[in-house]
Design goal:
about 325 residues, Rossmann fold, 17 helices, binds NADPH dihydro-nicotinamide-adenine-dinucleotide phosphate, binds the ligand CC[C@](O)(C(C)=O)C(=O)O, binds magnesium ion, magnesium ion binding, branched-chain amino acid biosynthesis, magnesium, Ketol-acid reductoisomerase (NADP(+))
């Protein structure tokens, strides 16, 4: 199945420049969208509750900060970039009462629409602009004249203009420099959850931690294990990013390539593929979404326990020490890029 990919020449920036945009939330994605929209000549205000710790960061950048309800009332395009689990209540309390004919409701991820936690009225456009990358890098790439690819989707289109509006928004945050692919809320949500759980975050973290454990439990120095399975992973992935797996295999030694081809399938066995399929089924049938919403409503006890265990993993102590000696690696995450 072929996809439609759009670039800057396909987008009309004046469409988003003609709207009053409210960005609800100023975290990883919120700050990136808000600052890049502003730098692209868009009229932006930020919606954050009184007392939010993000308020000071947005104000330091000279952005106008209102409450979510005030921002939604003023704007004719509302982009929700608060945590997925908070969006349902923000929508019902602050946004829904402020929606009018012709408004557009935008999302950075399809979770709340796909799992029907938010059901917008028929008179507003509902669309998505989902960058395929962490927000701090979305902003960093924009500032560097580059861009992170984005997915766009349209769920409701009473204006008949929702796709052009989403593409214009994606261009304003740098996405159309890299490529904007048209998809659906369902496809974005399911592939995004699968990617972060199985490969990008869950799979990669578990692979690195397990490799570190195997080496250190066998008596090798933690510093050597860290460089081998974590630090060098970025250098290897950089080659894949630039030229695919083939370029990485071209650059590593024949010995490494033979080990890759013969041992890789012994690590990622058919059982691992079955596990990935089971994870995908839990995403598709709503099991994961129900579990995550219930965990959040219960105050996230299991989430916190697992976070603490991750922070206590010995690789973190070794890594902190080594990164502290490489000033170019230990780059702080900021909200200004
Ligand atoms: N992180 C990423 O890179 C990516 C995220 N997304 C999607 O973007 C959305 C935002 O995620 P992310 O950027 O990670 O979120 P973060 O957790 O980084 O930031 C959330 C922001 O929302 C604010 N917030 C919390 N409660 C409210 C509220 N009641 N009203 C308004 N604002 C509130 C927080 O403020 P405070 O400081 O007070 O907590 C914070 O500024 C999600 O849909 C996510 O799936 C999509 C692609 C990548
Ligand atoms: C990979 C995690 C992500 O989906 C992202 C940065 O794209 C997220 O939800 O943060
Ligand atoms: Mg993602
Ligand atoms: Mg995600």
């Amino acid at each position: 199945m072929s996809v439609e990919i759009f670039y800057d020449d396909d987008a009309d920036l004046s469409i988003i420049q003609g709207r009053k945009v409210a960005v609800i939330g100023y975290g990883s994605q919120g700050h990136a969208h808000a600052l890049s929209l502003r730098d692209s000549g868009v009229d932006v205000r930020i919606g954050l509750p009184e007392g939010s710790k993000s308020r000071a960061k947005a104000e330091e950048e000279g952005l106008r900060v209102l409450t979510p309800a005030e921002a939604a009332g003023e704007a004719d395009l509302i982009m929700i970039l608060a945590p997925d689990t908070k969006q349902r209540s923000i929508y019902s309390e602050d946004i829904e009462p402020n929606l009018s004919d012709g408004d557009a409701l935008f999302f950075g991820h399809g979770f709340n629409i796909r799992y029907e936690l938010i059901k917008p009225p028929a008179n507003v456009d509902v669309a998505m602009v989902a960058p395929k990358g962490p927000g701090h890098l979305v902003r960093r790439q924009f500032v560097d004249g580059k861009g992170v690819p984005c997915l766009i989707a349209v769920e409701q289109d009473p204006s008949g203009n929702a796709q052009a509006l989403a593409l214009s928004y994606a261009a304003a945050i740098g996405g159309a420099r890299a490529g904007v692919i048209k998809t659906t809320f369902t496809e974005e949500t399911e592939t995004d959850l699968f990617g972060e759980q199985s490969v990008l975050c869950g799979g990669a973290s578990a692979l690195v931690q397990t490799g570190f454990e195997v080496l250190t439990e066998a008596g090798y120095a933690p510093e050597i294990a860290y460089f081998e399975v974590l630090h060098e992973l970025k250098l290897i992935v950089d080659l894949m990013y630039e030229g695919g797996i083939a370029r990485m295999r071209y650059s590593v030694s024949d010995t490494a390539e033979y080990g890759d081809l013969t041992r890789g399938p012994r690590v990622i066995t058919p059982e691992v593929k079955e596990n990935m399929r089971a994870i995908l089924r839990e995403i598709q049938d709503g099991t994961f979404a129900r579990e995550w919403v219930a965990e959040d409503e219960a105050g996230r006890p299991n989430f916190r326990k697992l976070q603490e265990a991750g922070e206590r993993h010995p690789i973190e102590e070794t890594g902190a020490k080594l990164r502290g000696l490489m000033s170019w690696v230990d780059r702080p995450i900021t909200e200004t890029a």
